[in-house]
């Protein structure tokens, strides 16, 4: 869920083009989702590799969280968002309720923006 | 999510609802932005139902509006390659039967992957994946419809700090895994690689590059005595 920035207004593209773009994105994305599930069954992966899979997933998700926290469109995202996430991280570290982590992070960022922090 | 062991079902639904509300709001902003940038309502809704990948959807709308539909497909797919390793890690979680796997694969997102992997393996993890995946699918699509209908009246989700809610939620879900030293070293190295390369690589590649973090497991044991 990254990249929330609004875009400029332009003319609507051809419906045929739109259908093609949406179908290509849908088929390709579904294929990526399914191929992993399919491969895992067909390849008889050795035990050590199976154990690495959740570690690899954690690395991807941590990278996603880090880039979504610090960057926006390839540049620094500003101060309000990382500070909010940092508050959430601190609460998560001390095993706070999931709800509290998420709400505190959002509220901190929202309040900082309200106070004029970018 | 320590309380997950005490009251599994209740806390599961509450945690899914927390992210669900945020997803509904961001879905609404997607619908509103899509329509504002010239996409017809059916296209925004179809994208949310059959693509169901927030980052790729926002990117595609921006690139279509900029007049480069082919680039929208390539960039969107590059952003979604990360689902392939997610599938490898989740295959046994989703379902034993093929019919259910075909459906369950579509519910795979960053959030549902992290949410499921935060639970101990077994039936609890499978239930968490399906409750989260289908709940968030409904929230995202309902949000898109609301955004399309309300258009410009949908506020900017950044104003409510929702752009901080998602990474914070992801980190909270990852926390149990990050308490394990090997996983923590790999994840922190991968995250650092991704952040450092984000300004220079096209979107999607930096996150994939995080897989190179696995290389720290090959380093000699002495080198592992790092501050983290």
How are the SSEs placed, and which strands pair?
The complex is a heterodimer of chains A (about 120) and B (about 230).
Chain A lengths: L14 H28 L4 H24 E2 L2 E2 L3 H14 L4 H17 L4
Antiparallel strand pairs in A: 1-2
Chain B lengths: L7 H29 L4 H10 L3 H12 L3 H12 L2 H12 L3 H9 L3 H8 L5 H28 L11 H17 L2 H17 L7 H5 L19
Walk me through the structure.
Chain A is mainly alpha-helical. Chain A has four helices and two strands. In chain A, a hairpin with a 2-residue loop joins β1 and β2. The two termini of chain A are 20 Å apart. With 228 residues, chain B is mostly helical. Helix content of chain B is 70%, strand content 0%. The two termini of chain B are 23 Å apart. Mean pLDDT of chain B is 92; it is low at 1-6. At the A-B interface, α1, α2, α3 and α4 of A face α1, α2, α3, α4 and α5 of B. Chain B: This is 4-azaleucine resistance transporter AzlC. Chain B: One of its GO terms (biological process) is L-valine transmembrane transport.
Query: End-to-end span of chain A in angstroms?
Result: 20 Å
User: Compute the gyration radius of chain A: what is it?
Assistant: 20 Å
User: Beta-strand percentage of chain B?
Assistant: under 5%
Structural class of chain A: mainly alpha
Helicity of chain A, as a percent range = over 70%
Termini separation of chain B (Å)?
A: 23 Å
| DSSP helical segment count of chain A | 4
Multimerization state? heterodimer
Main sheet strand line-up of chain A: 1-2
Strand tally of chain B is 0
Give a short account of the largest sheet of chain A. Answer: 2 strands, antiparallel
Structural class of chain B: mainly alpha
Overall average pLDDT of chain A: 90
Q: Sheet bearing the most strands of chain B, described?
A: none
Low-confidence stretches of chain B: 1-6
Query: Could you spell the SSE succession of chain A in H and E letters?
Result: HHEEHH
Number of strands of chain A: 2
């Amino acid at each position: 869920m990254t990249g929330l920035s609004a875009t400029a207004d332009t003319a609507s593209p051809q419906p045929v083009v739109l259908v093609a773009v949406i179908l290509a994105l849908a088929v390709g994305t579904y294929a990526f989702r399914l191929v992993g599930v399919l491969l895992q069954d067909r390849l008889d992966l050795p035990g050590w590799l199976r154990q690495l899979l959740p570690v690899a997933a954690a690395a991807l998700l941590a990278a996603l969280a880090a880039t979504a926290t610090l960057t926006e469109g390839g540049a620094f995202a500003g101060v309000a968002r990382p500070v909010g996430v940092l508050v959430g991280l601190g609460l998560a570290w001390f095993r706070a309720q999931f709800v509290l982590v998420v709400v505190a992070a959002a509220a901190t960022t929202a309040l900082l923006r309200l106070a004029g922090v970018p | 999510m320590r309380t997950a062991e005490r009251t599994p079902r209740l806390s599961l639904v509450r945690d899914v609802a927390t992210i669900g509300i945020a997803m509904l709001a961001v879905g609404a902003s997607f619908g509103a932005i899509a329509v504002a940038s010239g996409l017809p309502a059916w296209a925004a809704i179809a994208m949310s139902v059959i693509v169901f990948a927030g980052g790729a959807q926002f990117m595609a709308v921006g690139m279509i509006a900029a007049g480069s539909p082919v680039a929208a497909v390539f960039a969107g797919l590059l952003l979604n390659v990360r689902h392939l390793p997610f599938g490898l890690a989740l295959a046994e979680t989703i379902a034993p039967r093929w019919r259910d796997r075909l459906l369950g694969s579509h519910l795979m997102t960053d959030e549902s992957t992290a949410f499921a992997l935060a639970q101990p393996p077994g039936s609890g993890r499978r239930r968490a994946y399906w409750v989260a995946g289908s709940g968030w699918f409904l929230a995202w699509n309902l949000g898109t419809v609301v955004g399309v209908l309300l258009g410009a009246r949908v506020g900017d989700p950044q104003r409510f700090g929702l752009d901080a809610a998602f990474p914070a939620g992801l980190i909270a879900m990852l926390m149990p895994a990050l308490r394990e030293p090997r996983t923590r070293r790999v994840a922190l190295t991968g995250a650092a690689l991704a952040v450092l390369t984000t300004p220079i690589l096209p979107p999607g590649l930096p996150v994939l590059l995080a897989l190179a973090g696995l290389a720290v497991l090959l380093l000699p044991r002495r080198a592992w005595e790092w501050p983290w």
